[in-house]
Amino acid sequence: MNFKQLNALLNAHLSETKLQFETTEIETGVYAVYSNGEFSIRIRDEDQPLTAEKFSDVLNSPVTSLSHAEMTAIISGHTKHISVTVWDGQDCAPQISETPSPSENNTSETFQTKLNLCQNAVTSLISFNKPDAVLWHQSKQMFCPQQFLSMRDIDFPLALYVHPKPFSSGEKLDDTLLAGFRVDHISQFIGKPLVYNETFLPFEKAFEHLSEFMAYHRNTGEIMPDGECFGRDKKNQVRVNHIAPDDDHPNGIVELTYLHTQKPKPKPIKKDRSQRPESLAPRSAVTFKRPAQVMTQEALLKIVFRGDPRKPLFDDGTVEDNPEGNTLLSRLPFGSV
What we know:
With 337 residues, the protein is α+β, with helices and mostly antiparallel strands. The chain folds into 2 domains: 3-157 and 319-330, no CATH class; 160-263 and 293-306, no CATH class. Helix content is 23%, strand content 25%. The strands form 3 sheets. It has a 7-stranded antiparallel β-sheet with strand order 1-2-3-4-16-5-6. A 7-stranded mixed β-sheet has the order 12-13-14-11-10-7-15. A hairpin with a 3-residue loop joins strand 2 and strand 3. Helix 1 packs across helix 4 (108-128). It is globular. Mean pLDDT is 78; it is low at 96-104, 273-325 and 331-337. Residues 262-284, 314-337 are annotated as: Disordered.
């Protein structure tokens, strides 16, 4: 791998942020460190596969961007990987085996900057090489390269920053399982954990509400007040509740609750009897490959976590001071431009 060419490509991707990096350390064909004085990025080319335990989180997650079969095929078939590490300053890079520790200087803005640097570094590597997948530990996800690149222009890609953990009490509404989710790592941005209470809504719709909630926070710098409601219209309102601190949650908890308890009635489908059978025949000359999507609520029926959304909560108290494990996997040796 030509690390100096990669440095130039990384700076090109970061041109709009005004963050530019120089190569401060390099071992030909093995690793390089890029730094701008404030942050450092290490790219390490490992000519061996990752160990099985590195994939435990993503394989055990009920919400995934790739199917279990796709992930298993990539994991069992990959022969090497490239790791990306970002940390503060120009000191020596932390070892990957070390557990990141909280930092007093690790503000929400700083943490997001480091995640953004990781994202840009991986984007550069995808352009520079042809990996099979990206293992992104911050949100416990594995992405195919196309999925990862599609998030490049998103200002705050929640799929990279947080990890939802679905839960359900098992109750149903009109044969629809009620389910909610807890959000891993969101306290690094809003200062406290967040729970979306059980609802009949599909997971994707509820996750959109989380995106709207975070958009307000990013625009104002504040958490939406207790009792405030938001939504795109009066028929789709979500209430914000601030749960008081306790011994387990010293900063309290934010709860989001979808206010409508009745499912909307489906609109009747009008049949167009003017259609001839031959006009409804499929076009055999064109084939489409359906992209992998986030698991639907129906698909969570067998694997959803059951229990109180606050007990136990989740491992959201540890701040990753150096977002680690953003790893590219490949079945074949990486090529270079």
